[in-house]
Amino acid sequence: MDKLNIICVDDQREVLSAVLKDLEPLSQLFAIEDCESGDEALELMDELDAEGEYVALVVSDHVMPGMTGVELLTEVSKDGRFVHTKKILLTGQATHQDAISAINQARIESYFEKPWQAEVLVSTVRNLITEYIFDMGLDHTQWLEALDQQVVLKRLH
Prior knowledge:
single chain; alpha/beta; Rossmann fold; 5-stranded parallel sheet; about 20% strand; globular
C-alpha cells in the first residue's frame, strides 16, 4: 500500500493539536504528521520523498516566526517533486493581500479562517486527497472508504 502523508504546520501547539484532533478520523488510512515551523515541514517533506512516500496535503498556519505559511506553501508549489501536493492555509490574522498572495503564489486549494469548523475541514481534506490520488494516477481503491465519493464518481466517468 502506498503511504500518503498529511503534514500539519503551526507554531502554536494548541492549534496544531486541534487540527490533529479534527483530522483523527482520517488517521487510519493516512499518516498525519505535525511540524512547528515551515523549515521543519520542508525537511520532513524531503525525508518522506527520499523514502518514496507521498505528500498528499500540507495544512499550514499563516502567521509563524521565520517562514510564513504563504512562503512555505509557495516553496512547496515551486518544488517539482510536490507539483500535485494540495495546500490549505489556516489563519487568524491574514490580510486581504495575504489571501491574494496565497492563492496566486502558493496556489493553495483552500483557505480557512480560525476558528474553522471541524466537519468542513475534514470534508475539504477528503476532497483534496481524493483529487491528489487521481492526479497522481494512484489506485484509489485502497483508500476508498476515506475518499470523497462524489469526486471519485466524477473522476471515474
